[in-house]
């Protein structure tokens, strides 16, 4: 999928540069792009938007009609631009890259936390506090439960992974014994 991220980068950078100029622009665009990306990632929407019987105006109206958030003129212009350039299906990658730029600008990062068991709010806050010291960033946690880990947690922040799961420890033991 490197090709899609390459296509998405200029759009995300242009939106980011534009959004930084208004007071709540980053937050508003982040929320809108998240919704647009979610809509564009739906299989039936993808199929409809690639239907050769629809022209650009029909595709634009179809997509805009699926968005729950009221669209500003800038939002509608973005949809029209992406539809006319045959890039509307790249919206999930644009949203992802925009959020990455936004987090970098704010000095924050997304921490994808996979835990073998459900974590309560106190446990998440304690874990995030420790991770913020380790990574030196303000972290936004996204917690999911993954029973395959057996125990412990696996944290991904950007391209860094901290894996303290029982599954990872067993794999390390297996590799040591096999060597």
From TrEMBL:
Its main location: membrane. Keywords: ATP synthesis, Cell membrane, CF(1), Hydrogen ion transport, Ion transport, Membrane, Transport. InterPro entries: ATP_synth_OSCP/delta_N_sf, ATPase_OSCP/dsu. The keyword Membrane applies. One of its GO terms (cellular component) is proton-transporting ATP synthase complex. The keyword Ion transport applies. One of its GO terms (molecular function) is proton-transporting ATP synthase activity, rotational mechanism. Signal peptide: none annotated. It comes from the Bacteria. It is a peripheral membrane protein. It is found in: Cell membrane; Membrane. HAMAP family: ATP_synth_delta_bact. This protein is part of the stalk that links CF(0) to CF(1). It either transmits conformational changes from CF(0) to CF(1) or is implicated in proton conduction. F(1)F(0) ATP synthase produces ATP from ADP in the presence of a proton or sodium gradient. F-type ATPases consist of two structural domains, F(1) containing the extramembraneous catalytic core and F(0) containing the membrane proton channel, linked together by a central stalk and a peripheral stalk. During catalysis, ATP synthesis in the catalytic domain of F(1) is coupled via a rotary mechanism of the central stalk subunits to proton translocation. Belongs to the ATPase delta chain family. This is ATP synthase subunit delta. It comes from Pollutimonas thiosulfatoxidans.
């Amino acid at each position: 999928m490197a090709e899609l991220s390459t296509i998405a980068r200029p759009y995300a950078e242009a939106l980011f540069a534009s959004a930084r100029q208004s007071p709540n622009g980053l937050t508003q665009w982040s929320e809108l792009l998240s919704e647009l990306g979610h809509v564009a990632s739906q299989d039936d929407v993808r199929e409809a938007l690639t239907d050769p019987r629809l022209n650009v105006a029909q595709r634009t109206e179809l997509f805009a009609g699926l968005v729950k958030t009221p669209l500003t003129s800038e939002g509608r212009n973005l949809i029209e631009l992406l539809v006319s350039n045959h890039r509307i299906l790249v919206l999930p990658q644009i949203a992802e890259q925009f959020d990455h730029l936004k987090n970098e600008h704010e000095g924050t990062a997304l921490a994808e936390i996979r835990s073998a068991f459900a974590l309560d709010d106190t446990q998440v806050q304690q874990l995030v506090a420790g991770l913020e010291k380790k990574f030196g960033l303000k972290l936004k946690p996204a917690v999911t439960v993954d029973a395959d880990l057996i125990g412990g947690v696996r944290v991904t922040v950007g391209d860094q992974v901290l894996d303290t799961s029982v599954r990872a420890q067993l794999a390390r033991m297996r590799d040591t014994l096999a060597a």
